[in-house]
Write a structure and sequence with these properties.
Length: 359
């Protein structure tokens, strides 16, 4: 049975193996690849034997070099940026390339407690036998420390401040005390932490100054150019469509361009030609949302259309992506429809389709 989403180290196992074979760089302790090879894995490129490595991140190579270099030091890495800027994607691939294991993951939420980061207890065993190592519930963080691997923390700023500060001892002293057993877990070489965070979503908790000092922060920006963002959308849609086995034709560049244009204009608050200022919606209008719009359109085209993505298929996804607040965002979207889309001759089909759904 095929899984819906493979871990990066399994999905790109061949690429990682080819990189390992030709890797002549020096490996930091417990790393599977040299830092240079990790960057090649992220950015893509042709190897000496002619093997082509696909790009996982489309953007500044220097940012990836800084991120990888950080993980060779005693500082943890914080990937920071707006929602949908590939923070989680980059973190997963970094862990896969460095440790060969991207699954040591802690998902940050408002309900994440200290025991999720440090350790927990099997309470049935604890009551029956008292505190013992057998009663200890090991967390991904503890496993990463013991094995010298990368631990990932998603949405660090969703975790409450008092729980966030649990990380200070781990990151500064590289140890995890277990006072109930009078022992401590010391981190093995190769251990480090990659955290992701954004400042846009509701429920964000600021990091304390003490915790910020334990991280090197790399800000992942939104794609710089239209072509760059289109490339990201096209690649991710193709990958997801293959996994989902959607019986639809690959979307045309024309349709991808129209979706990306709408997202970039509403995100920037101005049309591409710079002539018309626009109100911005409450949603982030991220590249990840654009990928979702195209994928949902392909599903509609595949199962309820002729298999070819068109404006009618994309309309529902577009409206859903923009109108998160039924009052404020609806005003923004209607204004955009009337002042921008309606005036573009070759966009009348998408204007009518979106108008029908919005009304």
């Amino acid at each position: 049975m095929s899984v819906l989403r493979q871990h990066a180290e399994h999905q790109f196992a061949q690429e990682l193996e080819e990189l390992r074979k030709g890797d002549s760089g020096k490996l930091p302790p417990n790393w599977k690849l040299s830092p240079a090879a990790v960057v090649t894995y992220l950015m893509g490129g042709k190897l000496k034997n002619g093997f082509e490595v696909s790009p996982k991140y489309i953007g500044s190579r220097r940012l990836m070099e800084i991120a990888v270099a950080t993980l060779t030091t005693d500082r943890a890495l914080l990937l920071y940026g707006l929602p949908g800027t590939a923070k989680s994607w980059v973190a997963e691939h970094l862990a896969a390339a460095i440790s060969g294991n991207s699954t040591l993951l802690i998902q940050g939420t408002a309900g994440t407690g200290e025991e999720t980061i440090r350790y927990g207890w099997n309470y049935a065993r604890l009551l029956a036998e008292g505190p013992s190592e057998k009663a200890l519930v090991v967390t991904p963080m503890m496993t990463a420390m013991k094995e010298g691997k990368i631990a990932r923390i998603e949405e660090l700023t969703r975790i409450t401040a008092d729980v966030q500060d649990t990380l200070i001892t781990i990151l500064s002293e590289k140890l995890l005390p277990v006072p109930e057993l009078n022992l401590e877990v010391q981190a093995v070489q190769g251990f480090n932490v990659i955290a992701t965070a954004n400042n846009r979503d509701k429920g964000v908790n600021e990091l304390s100054g003490a915790l910020k000092r334990r991280f090197n922060t790399v800000i992942l920006p939104v794609p710089e150019s239209m072509e760059e963002e289109m490339d990201i959308v096209q690649r991710r849609v193709a990958s997801l469509s293959k996994v989902l086995e959607l019986p639809a034709e690959a979307p045309s560049l024309k349709e991808i361009r129209r979706v990306v244009t709408i997202f970039r204009e509403l995100r920037a608050g101005v049309t591409q030609d710079g002539k018309t200022k626009l109100k911005t919606p409450t949603s982030a209008m991220s590249t990840a949302e654009a990928i979702s719009v195209v994928n949902s359109g392909l599903a509609l085209a595949a199962y309820f259309g002729d298999g070819t993505l068109n404006a009618h298929d994309m309309a529902a996804g577009l409206v859903g992506a923009v109108v998160k607040d039924p009052v404020q965002d609806k005003v923004v979207w209607n204004e955009y429809l009337e002042t921008v889309l309606k005036t573009r001759e070759d966009w009348r089909d998408i204007y009518r389709a979106c108008k029908d759904i919005t009304l």
